[in-house]
Design a protein that fits this description.
This protein has about 130 residues and is an all-alpha fold. Helix content is about 65%, strand content about 0%.
C-alpha cells in the first residue's frame, strides 16, 4: 500500500521542487519596461510548445525565457540586443517574425505578389466577360 501511495505522491513532490525563476511570472515594477517585455515575449516562440509564444506558454523552458527577457529589459538592453541574444542562442526560428532579408524577404513579399497576381487574373476575366 505504501508503494502505491508513494507512486501517486512522487510526481507531485517532483513538480513542487521545480523552481520557477523569479521574473518568469512577476511583472516588472516599471510599466514601460513591462510593456516592452510583454511585446517581446509575444513574438518569441516557445521551444517546447512551438506553436505558442513564451508569453502564452506554461512550459518550464518558457518560464525561464520570460525571466531572461524581463531581466534583460530591466538591465537596460534594447529590443534589438535581446532579439540578437535569443537568435544567437536558439536560432532564427525562435522569432514569430521572419527576417526582412534573404529567404525571409520572400515570406514578406509573397502575400503582396499573390494579391497582385489574383487582381491581374480577375481583371483579365472581367475584361473578357464585357466584350
Amino acid at each position: 500500500f505504501a508503494v502505491l501511495l508513494l507512486s501517486f505522491a512522487l510526481p507531485t513532490l517532483v513538480a513542487a521542487q521545480e523552481t520557477v525563476p523569479p521574473l518568469a511570472n512577476q511583472q516588472l515594477a516599471d510599466p514601460g519596461q513591462e510593456a516592452r517585455a510583454t511585446k517581446l515575449m509575444s513574438v518569441i516562440r516557445c521551444i517546447q510548445c512551438q506553436g505558442q509564444s513564451i508569453h502564452d506558454s506554461d512550459a518550464p523552458i518558457a518560464a525561464a525565457m520570460r525571466h531572461e527577457v524581463r531581466a534583460r529589459v530591466q538591465s537596460g538592453e534594447n529590443d534589438a540586443q535581446i532579439n540578437a541574444w535569443l537568435k544567437s542562442r536558439y536560432g532564427e526560428w525562435i522569432s514569430f517574425e521572419p527576417p526582412s532579408h534573404g529567404a525571409g524577404l520572400v515570406l514578406w513579399l509573397l502575400p503582396v505578389l499573390l494579391l497582385g497576381a489574383a487582381l491581374l487574373v480577375a481583371s483579365s476575366r472581367f475584361r473578357k466577360g464585357k466584350s
